[in-house]
Amino acid sequence: MTITFVLLVNRQGQTRLAQYYEYLSIEERRALEGEIVRKCLARSDQQCSFVEHRNYKIIYRRYASLFFLVGVDGDENELAILEFIHCVVETLDRYFGNVCELDIMFHLEKAHFMLEEMVMNGCIVEINKQNILTPIQLMDKSSNPQFKLPLSSSTFSVF
Amino acid sequence: MGTRLRDMIRAVRACKTAAEERGVIAKECANLRNSFKENDQDYRHRNVAKLMFIHMLGYPTHFGQMECLKLIASGGFPEKRIGYLGLMLLLDERQEVLMLVTNSLKNDLNHGNQFIAGLALCALGNICSAEMARDLAPEVEKLLHNNNSYIRKKAALCSVRIVRKVPDLVEYFTNPAVGLLTDKHHGVLIAGVKLCTELCQGSEAALEQMRKQVQTLVRILKNLVVSGYAPEYDVGGITDPFLQIRILRLLRLVGRGDPDSSDVMSDILAQVATNTEGNKNAGNAILYECVLTIMAIEGIGGLRVLAINILGRFLANRDNNIRYVALNTLVKVVSVDTQAVQRHRTTIVECVKDSDVSIRRRALELVYALVNETNVKTLTKELLEYLKVSDPEFKADLTAKICSLVQKFAPNKQWYIDQMILVMAEPGNHVREEVLRTLIVVISNAPELHGYTVRSLFRTMQHWNGQESLAQVTVWCIGEYGEMLVNHLNELEGEEPLTVTESDAVDVIETVMKDVRSSSNTQAFALTALLKLSSRFPSNTQRIKDMIKPHKGSLILELQQRSIEFGAILNRHENIKATLVERMPVLDEATYNSKKADGAGMALPSDTKRATPVGGPDILANGGPKPETTNTLIDLLNLDADETPAHEPRKSAGDHLLSLLGADPLASQNASTNPDNVLMDILSLGSPAPTTGPSSSTSLFPPAAADPFGGSLLDVAAPAAPVDPFGASLAPATGTAPRKTSLLDELDVSSTVPQPPRKASLLDDLGPTIPNANNSLLDGLDSAPIVPATSAYPTIVALQSSGLKVLFDFIKPPGNPQSTTIKASYINLSSNPYTDFIFQAAVPKFLQLQLEPASGSVLPASGGGLITQSINLTNTMHGQKSLLMKLRIIYKINGQDKVEQGQVSNFPQGL
């Protein structure tokens, strides 16, 4: 019962974020992403949010123009994953304020940081939004004396 | 210095085509490489961030891996942060670079700053390899007792990874893991419960220890259920559903097979099941998990009723997600409590017709599990109705399921035949070959239904629309039982009367033969049927001759041969024709079933046939026509038992006989060059005299003879026996072949008849013409006398999976004991062709391996052909060590890559 990957895909099928918790080569990933995105995007809203593909089960949910897809292995609780996706979106929303595709594109690393706090090695570890965001907000506040920041990159503005 | 990350993303977004995007990325990568070369410190983490973006787009980024390591080693948090992120995204545990990071990780694990330690734990938890796990386990274990919850929770999940990588460490982590269960922090609890679950799955001892903690788990769960609103971990009005689910899951593990623990947890399970609100997704997630736990632990009746009721509610829910989950659970529960699931049968059958493919698949699986003798009729009817309207891509699955259900639970043969005809009448060719074969065996075994079947088929064929399976069965039945179409024999009660003339019956065959959709396989069926009809319907003989004739010029060897030989029989051997084309003897159901049960590895009759290159792979692909040819001989010899395993020999022997009978001048020439003219002599004695043909067959082979080949055949063969040089070598040769069981049937026969002449002729004739008969029974037969060396080592099955079989034959070149030549042959057992087939092998150092090019790279479906390949091995430690080989086979099915691996350690001794 683990999450094998988390994907964010827009309506055109372009990947916006990809985090894998098991090793797949670049070619395999591209192929897999293509296949499941095609499968999921073709489904209507009335159909259920679960799709079986190869030996993964994909649980997906659409928020505006973004599809959140989570691949799990055989006996994961599908409804819980659905709830988890919602949790991810709420967290992104709290951080970015009305999150949109571009926020994630231009702050990919931030999105990853959040996901990293929430999922580790394919297991959900934290769902409290404050706990998730604290380290990131701390980092944003460059004034925090805890960190010895090099002069050249006092903030992430260099990005 | 390059562009800003923002600008790169903009540039990528602005790309209109994939080629444009590739251009932008290539340029960016070149800049990055330069920047890395210059060891540009200031922009290092911007560069890594770019790399991550490029990686996400699906381009290779391996050149940046070292940069991540450098960032991790640096002192600043933002650098470390991005460095670790890069590490987790761009690297994986298989890369050796990862070893370099062990030391940095160790330092960071012990860092005073919780976030830095957290980062290291997270990275370790996501990507650590077994070696790293072993090296860093003590550090992680120490952090499990850290007073900071942020670190404890990450350490717990990191331990999950470590335990998974190094299972011996389970014991080491058990006590700290149990300690985590008393933690107050939710994140730590989630992680701790997960760690406990992982430990329990890995070790029986840990499970035992965890059983002592049931009370603790129950208490945590109880606190969650009864506690009021807890804003920190509230999801839709429910306190921490994720933790509840985790605990329920652990309880499932603990309670399974342990009545005491099950008893302890029953109260809380009941409480969860009744108190959880089912109107929100989070609540349903918990209910779902709770039901699974209740059904898995040791039975408590009342609780199960509760669980089944929840599932009933789920199933009736309008939300498709909930219905999916319900079906998914019912599949798991059906073995525990079939009765309860049966109650929901109607709803489940409705779900098979759902518009959503995910739900349909689940429901179909469930229906399949639910069918039994009592409900098979209603359920099959439903499924058949649905088959008519289902999506094309769903049909194959559905057809296979229906066929197997009908076969398994049919209350009587007539019903079975009826249903099969209905399935076959569906458009599209979804009925599989073995299903067809089973049907024919059943038909053949139901003499009282022959008339009914052939008439039903005839009726269905009036609306024929190119269904291959229907055509084949119909043509076969008309060939066998054609006269029953016309004379209303065996009419069943309530059967609709049908008036058919002889030429109507021939019309059906003509339709099939003229149709462009009919494969050569079907054509072959049709030709044999025509030959048979020629004696059943004498008035149509001329028409049949005209229909057979066009195939004399067929480009397909099998059809051409049939056409020529059958033509000869019709024109020149009227006298023996009636006996020659008698009805096929009843196929032995028991033998057939036991063969089938023995699995794909056994030499199924069809497999055996496929190995022969006689008719080209396209004809043999379906394996169907052979029984017919076989037939003629069987009819001729009037052998009436156990012919299933012996198709091959008889078929060829049949050809022989035909040629011996003078049907084919060329073949008879061949035959006369054979040393064993025995059979020919005997037959040529018989054939010129018009009267002896039929009479000899009756006198020689009394129809009631219980002995299949035995006595009667021996009578003929007796004078020949001493002459036959191969008979003696036959028995030992077959004995060494690996497929013993199937061969035993053969052996039975050959032991009662020590030197059956038909076999001897077979050896001679087929031996040289079969370059590669590894798969067939014949292998043992033909190779033995010709290449004596081969028989010293039995053929082995080197790899066998559901879709592929690899066989090894061994040849030991004389004079060099160290070297061995392996003749590998690959057989496709699935119904899809494999393309780009590549075989790879690895051997230990004491062996030297040389792979010759394979005979091809495309492997036709269903064993319709095979690829062969020679492998030369030199065993430098011959006599001390035996061969060992690892295999890896790569191929594509419908464009999808597939890899199979295996190890071969069952090499015969002495190689």
From TrEMBL, chain A:
AP complex mu/sigma subunit domain: residues covered: 2-141
Keyword Protein transport: yes
A GO term from the CC aspect: AP-4 adaptor complex
Tagged with keyword Manganese: no
Subcellular location: Endomembrane system
Domain of life: Eukaryota
Keywords tagged on the record: Membrane, Protein transport, Transport
Entries under InterPro entries matching the protein: AP_complex_ssu (IPR016635), AP_mu_sigma_su (IPR022775), Longin-like_dom_sf (IPR011012)
SUPFAM superfamilies documented for this protein: SNARE-like (SSF64356)
Entry coiled-coil feature ranges: none
GO biological process: intracellular protein transport; vesicle-mediated transport
Similarity-based family: Belongs to the adaptor complexes small subunit family.
Protein name: AP complex subunit sigma
Lineage, opening ranks: Eukaryota, Viridiplantae, Streptophyta, Embryophyta, Marchantiophyta
From TrEMBL, chain B:
GO CC annotation terms, alphabetical: AP-1 adaptor complex
InterPro entries: Adaptor_Complx_Large_Subunit (IPR050840), AP1_complex_gsu (IPR017107), ARM-like (IPR011989), ARM-type_fold (IPR016024), Clathrin/coatomer_adapt-like_N (IPR002553), Clathrin_a/b/g-adaptin_app_Ig (IPR008152), Clathrin_app_Ig-like_sf (IPR013041), GAE_dom (IPR008153)
Family: Belongs to the adaptor complexes large subunit family.
Ranges for region Disordered: 598-627, 748-767
PROSITE patterns with a match to the protein in the record: GAE
Domain GAE: 791-908
Pfam family, one: Adaptin_N
Protein name: AP-1 complex subunit gamma
Native organism: Marchantia polymorpha (Common liverwort)
Keywords from the named record: Cytoplasmic vesicle, Golgi apparatus, Membrane, Protein transport, Transport
Subcellular location: Cytoplasmic vesicle membrane; Golgi apparatus
GO terms of molecular function: clathrin adaptor activity
Keyword Cell division part of the UniProt annotation: no
Annotated GO biological process: Golgi to vacuole transport; intracellular protein transport
PANTHER family per the UniProt record, alphabetical: ADAPTIN, ALPHA/GAMMA/EPSILON
